[in-house]
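Re: that chain you flagged

S.,

Sorry for the slow reply, it's been a week of failed gels. I finally had a moment to sit down with the sequence you sent. For the record, here it is as I used it:
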Amino acid sequence: MAWRCSGRTNADLIANMHTAQIITTNRVDEVIDRANYVIHKSEAYDDSPQSIGHGATISAPHMHAHAIEHLLDYLGPGKRVLDVGSGSGYLCAVLHHLVPGGVVVGIDHIPELVDWSKGNLRQDGLGSALDNGEIVTVTGDGRQGYSDLAQYDAIHVGAAAPTIPQQLVDQLKSPGRMFIPVGTFAQQITQVDKDENGKVTRKNLMGVMYVPLTDAERQRRGY
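Prediction finished late last night. Pasting the structure tokens below so you have them in one place:
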């Protein structure tokens, strides 16, 4: 089961997710160490969500792995990706290695998290990617996407929206794919596909429980 993928090291964690067939490709490997993007280093390789302050969490490793697996066909050299609710910057780092020469945009509405994520990325050796625009981290309402660098081959959303924000659908390329948790009490990961003609289809993948995708004030006061 997914929550049994915890390991003593980052390599153990990745290997356990391979064994559980959550990760099925060697493109997703241990190049990014989760310990560089969490507050409590001793819990870095636990397969569980963890608080990163300001009412935000870093998703459980198996959920990040599911997201990458479902978006993988839209990731590659030169691709452009949006990470909504980018938090500590972990998934931006992972995505950066999957889109060489492309652009990863992380957006979060908590400025303190955006600043912290930049520090995490620099400490993880990705300062040059920030400086040359291959990773862009911005403060803003992710429900509205980030139109300045749209459109995106892939969009990942790290919090549950009550309904799918139309602005995010509009900012998907044709073709493009979004991975987003949707719902309030009952939540589903929804895969949103836009084909080459702009036709949009939706497919529910699995039941989940994420923090809500909301505004900064509600998040700070605990929703």
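What I noticed first: The first strand starts at residue 50 and ends at 53.

Talk soon,
D.
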